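Hi R.,

As promised, here are both runs. First protein below:
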Amino acid sequence: MPQLDLQEIIRLLSPRSGTELIWDIMLYTIFIFGLIAMFMQSDKTLLPTLMMAVVVFIAVISKLQVIPPRHIITMLLNAVMAIFPIMVAAFTKAPKSRLPALLAGVTGFVYTAAFLLFAQQ
């Protein structure tokens, strides 16, 4: 079993250069808007909060590149990262969290489509 190295995790979470910087910026945007939308949910709405937590978790997993980019699971995770924020924006009871969730969803859709076209091919 490989050892967890904090230096390697920090290196993977930091922005890369070149064309990978575009993917990183989109993942950071999804993470930030997802986190904002998650914390703006009221205490009584567990499902939207958990859905946004899943989106934030998937953004971190995608940034860490735990799953290879050309794997089918990567495509499914990207689809969840695009669909869940739109669903949260549609049925949340906290109107102040709709805009961050919608922005996370739109960024997720752009990321998913671009990643599918250019990285997964």
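And here is the second one, sequence first, then its structure tokens:
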Amino acid sequence: MTTVAPSAVPAPRTDVRPEPRVAVVTGGARGIGAAITTALARDGVQVAAGYSSNSKAADDLAEKLGAEGATVSVHQGNVGAPEDCARVVEEVLERYGRVDYLVNNAGITVDKTVRKMTVDDWHAVLRVNLSGAFYMTKAVLDHMTGNGFGRIVNISSVIGESGAVGQANYAASKSGLFGFSKSLAQEVARKGVTVNCVAPGYIETEMVAAVPEKVLEKLVSGIPIGRLGQANEIARAVQFLLDDNAGYITGSVIAVNGGLDM
């Protein structure tokens, strides 16, 4: 009997990877993004942290991590503008020569019920949260597929699964990332590029801190673990998906929500 070898794509070798990897983290200077930037930089990754307007927060983070011996650069741009996305990626390629990881983390909220939500409110959130991920991905994808390696992680939200009163635009944008990630994952799987989502629950950030105390108490009471999540818990999930040895995970959604949505 003749045995026919399977025609599957061979597993990538992890013993020949260049050092260090280079990551682009959008919204990488505050909140969850800052935690991701910090975790990656401390792990030896060269990180390009994107920011839109708060240059002080970005510079302070880069300075802090630089003092620890890490390599972090900051890049201003609006992910909702495709020309800014292309420019930032070009800056990163000129500085580091490669992009291995893309973390689409940048996001905004404009919370109103649908009856009160304007067309501009709707498009503002979709433009940054969903289209921004598309624009950034377009800017790096040819480079990644050409190199035969890439990791893309899109930061979604539990709200993309459950919805929430006053957040139809935000929920639509975060739910849209699920479909975008799964479709793209199928397109680039044989090119050495994986695409996944991390869907945080309620995380202790400035955004959540702005929620009225009584509302926040009610939210926490509905979380089986009984507390808010920490930004570094999201960062660890992202690190796991970016790792070279996570190459067999693609098109997945990793929920980090304390059991809020199962």
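A quick note on the second one: The CA atoms of residues 110 and 120 lie 10 Å apart. Let me know what you think.

Best,
J.
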